[in-house]
Amino acid sequence: MDVPNKSKRMLLKSGLALGLYNLVSIQEILAKNDPFFMMDATAQADLIRKGEVSIEEMVMSAINRIEAVDGYLNAVVTRSFEEALLAAKNHDEKGPFPGVPYLIKDLLNHKGVRATGGSRMFANRIADRNSSNVQAAFDMGLISLGKTNTPEFGLLGVTESLLLGPARNPWNFNRSPGGSSGGSAAAVASGMVSIASASDGGGSIRVPASCCGIVGLKPTIHRTIDDAQPNRPIDLSVRFVHTRSVRDTITALHHMQSLSNSKLKPVPANIYPKEKQFRIGMITTNMLGQEAEPEVKNAIENSALICQNLGHQVEEIKPFINGDRFTNSFLTMWAYGAKGIIDLAQQNFVSKETSIDSLLEPWTLGLGKWFDAQPEGKVELAVSRLKEDTLSTRKLFESYDFILSPVTQTVAPKIGSMAPDINFDTLLERSLNFITFTPLANVTGDPAISLPMHWSSTGLPIGTHLHANYGNEEQLLELSLQLEEAKPWSDQRPKI
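Request: output the structure for the sequence above.
Response:
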């Protein structure tokens, strides 16, 4: 195989120096001179194991891609190129992804690297340890090239922060890549890397995956290796990865899973489509009774048709829980997290010289004020109601194997339309209208995935959302493999 060498890297850089300052030209250069461009992690790892390319060469090619593309996207907010090249030189080529380039969401810690959480409060913070999920990625052989953009503490459904600036969608620079793992999704979608870390507390893996046209699995709660989250009334968030292919997702899940939870059957290393008819309930109306916008609805109906053509049974279902009550309860728990951050800031960082407004964004502070305005006993009531909603979802899964729905109500929103410093009530309404299908899986703890099966008339990706019963990743990934084969997406690339 012809692999990138020094002369090819110089050609890439010379092309940029000639003024080819549009993404089409850059991607054309990359496609011609970088044979790893748009490969998935499995393919890149296979080349390394076969000795057809060195780890240093693989890492250097990813560095070149980041330097070529990220100026347009603002996806990579901290670069660790020297550390990555040193790690490549000393790599033992172990793990399923030996030497494959990787990026880390800036909510997670990489020892010795800046860790801002997207917040001015931690603008200069340096991590003193690796997050357990990051260490699990390193144990798979992945090499980090830096940190990816995130909204402040992951509290927003788009990736915009006052500290880091907005990440941009590679399919349209005027659109958001979604959030909160938008920087990671943009990096994977644009070809900078084939895999990047992500986390999901209300849709933050699946929403960016949908907006950017990649694969985004939210595993079952406590499935993956993660840092302990003590004293939380309800567990919502999981940490995993963004990928380009279902097979990469399967491999990562197998190796990043924690085997300490006896309630969960381990996910095998190899999953294959099986000749089994699944029962699928399709819903295109959100919990508040609103239909998804026409192109999004049509995309999900097309996904349903594909499922039927594969031999699966698809039936339309209606909202099955009280949407207003669920939304208020979920928002209470979301705001509870923001309130904890505000308390931390006031106790440790606010002084005569440093105001809370200079540390935290209006959106974070607004969530805290909203929380304070709720009646006494709000957390206990919210937890109780969300447990009832979980039981209702379990009841639905007695009749269906999966719930098929949109990921978001609309395609990727415009940059600035959900910025953290716009009017709080306006932003709250827009956020709730945008992300309405994903939070349920966080409340129930169930696995759910976004698959890049469709694109809008204007070229924006539209994800297909599949929500499975608790612990049922194996069947969810079996169906995902079938859909990937039935409607391949590996050749889909941003064409801006």
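The longest strand covers residues 448-455.
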